[in-house]
Write a structure and sequence with these properties.
- This protein is α+β, with helices and mostly antiparallel strands.
- The chain folds into two domains: 74 residues, lambda repressor-like DNA-binding domains (434 Repressor (Amino-terminal Domain), Orthogonal Bundle), CATH 1.10.260; 176 residues, Umud Fragment, subunit A, CATH 2.10.109.
- 28% of the residues lie in helices and 24% in strands.
- The protein contains nine helices and ten strands.
- The strands form two sheets. It has an eight-stranded antiparallel β-sheet with strand order 1-4-5-10-6-7-8-9. A two-stranded antiparallel ribbon has the order 2-3.
- The chain starts with a helix and ends with a helix.
Length: 262
């Protein structure tokens, strides 16, 4: 990578010297009460000659001084922040957790499904990545119309069988943060019963819920091996929101292999 050389070009276009950068960064370091924000003349020369990589604090100062987006500076040094969300989804963990959707630059485009595999029916639940035939670059302002601001995304841990088989481990769920009130179950089937994403002291849970006085009760599926759990509402457990969407595999990979269809 030649991030330092690009920094030199940016500084030269702005018409400022390394000494001026040094003094401007000194002000930033003083205001933040942290010398890590300070960039000496000698250190900046090293960075511009690609002999040294600046810390996140020094990149912060350069972002301020050069009037550049912090994410753009990170990319100069090989950190592709646009791939963060993709990598987070690909990295599966054993426990249930939240999955953020991060937008670093509204002027950029992001990878988004632009054509779905015709072999899949949109009315059937499946793993999202297997339904997508083509990923394309879509402007971020367009994505914002999909109400991403009001939604969070959770991953059901590979060891979490709370709502199995209704909700399989490894599923992704969409969570509406605006709906936190536990609704009474008065619908006909388990598919109509509200599912909630809950933050616990030591992790997260995705479950049916009931509220009895000050107790929040997490109710598993009748076929699940998991027990019913009970927590003090608001202190030991807090509802993040209601699950409004699910991306889930219909068939496990080991089952596909046994049937010879893998």
């Amino acid at each position: 990578m030649y991030g330092g050389q690009e920094l030199r070009k940016i500084r030269n276009r702005l018409g400022i010297t390394t000494r001026e950068v040094q003094e401007l960064s000194r002000v930033i370091a003083t205001e933040n009460l942290d010398p890590e924000y300070f960039i000496s003349h000698a250190r900046l020369i090293q960075v511009e000659n690609d002999q040294s990589t600046p810390s996140i604090y020094k990149l912060f100062s350069l972002s301020v001084i050069y009037h550049l987006k912090f994410a753009d500076l990170l990319q100069l040094f090989g950190v592709d922040v646009q791939k963060l969300a993709q990598r987070q989804i690909e990295t599966q963990l054993q426990h249930t957790h939240l999955t953020p959707v991060e937008v670093f630059d509204r002027e950029r485009s992001i990878s988004f499904p632009v054509r779905f595999d015709r072999g899949f029916e949109v009315t059937k639940t499946n793993l999202l990545s297997r339904m997508i035939e083509v990923w394309g670059e879509v402007p971020i302002p367009l994505i914002e119309h999909f109400d991403v601001r009001h939604s969070m995304y959770g991953f059901i841990g590979l060891d979490d069988l709370t709502l199995y088989p209704l909700l399989r481990p490894g599923s992704f769920v969409q969570i509406d943060q605006r709906i936190k009130k536990i609704l009474p179950f008065k619908r006909r089937t388990e598919y109509d019963r509200p599912i909630y994403f809950v933050e616990l002291r030591d992790g997260y849970a995705c479950s049916w819920c009931e509220l009895q006085d000050s107790q929040l009760i997490l109710i598993p599926h009748p076929l699940s091996p998991c027990p019913t759990r009970q927590f003090k509402n608001g202190t030991e457990a807090e509802v993040i929101g209601r699950v409004t969407g699910v991306a889930m595999r219909v068939v496990d990979f080991d089952q596909l292999g046994e049937n010879g269809n893998a």
